[in-house]
Amino acid sequence: MPFSIHDLAQHSGTPLRILEMISERLPSGAGYLFQVQSFRKKRGGLREIVKPNRLFDMVAKNLHRGFSKALPYRPLEHVHGFVAKRSTFTNASAHLGKACVLRVDLEDFFPSINSMQLKSLLQGQGYDDKAASLAVSIVTIAGKLPIGLSTSPFLSNVAFHETDVALAAYSGAENLSFTRYVDDLAFSGEVTDRHLADISQILNDAGWSINTRKTAFMRRGGPQYVTGLYVGTPDRPCIPREIKRRMRWTSHIISKFGYEAYMTEFGGEEAEMLPQRLLGWARYIAAVEPDVGYPLLRLFYEEVPEQYILHRDIEWLMQADDLD
Known about the structure:
Elements: H1 5-12, H2 16-25, E1 34-40, E2 46-52, H3 54-70, H4 88-93, E3 100-105, H5 115-124, H6 129-139, H7 151-159, H8 161-173, E4 177-181, E5 184-189, H9 193-205, E6 216-219, E7 225-226, E8 229-230, H10 241-257, H11 259-265, H12 275-288, H13 290-303, H14 311-323
Antiparallel strand pairs: 1-2, 3-5, 3-6, 4-5, 7-8
Helix pairs in contact: 1-3, 1-6, 2-6, 5-6, 10-11, 10-13, 12-13, 13-14
């Protein structure tokens, strides 16, 4: 039996009347149920991000958890974005020490997924017509999958699944390593122009657009980066040198003059290195390169206001001390 609207409500842990109320109000809900923030992209154009209000955000999170548990979709091994226990680190690890890495970026990934596609996908995942229509009316805005809703990452993976299957089959036949992190595709091995042409054809046939400005061949001996990590060494992905240099300089200034002086006199405010961002960088570096990241985390732990310290920071530092 297909899932009904009552099953959808049960899967989402949200009363059906709340789902229907949001569905009815969402088309004109800007400023009430959500706000849209626009950010200018580095290479031109605007990226619109939806910021839901508390109720809408709670419902979207509940729906995401319900979709993840109730629907039969399971990501393939090469999919690393928005998948538990996978990350930019696991994504980059598949491409270590390869002769060539090809990066292919998709254009407007989330917004290119529309309501009709999503309704068909949800029906394919087991929802009946009414349930699929109700779900789509909540998880899309202006007929598109928005950036910023908790449901969008999971649904984008579902939408790309058939293309994932096709690209994985092609890569296996061509002896290439392939991973995808959201809209960032990476292929490595003896990659040639022919492979790029074939990959482009697969993507075009499936209705996806390539961002040619971000497509690049990265050959051995030169810069090779996958999801922001250097993969030119055979042992493990590394934080780019420029980031490590900048963070070491930051830690030196903070240790010598203090965090407040760094912010007001050494460019911290211009770099927007508020405590949460500074600690975020240290956590990220510690997860990839512990020998570099833990000293930064220790220093920032001592210098930044206490309310920004997370419990996991303390756990990480205790683990690091046990390893020393």
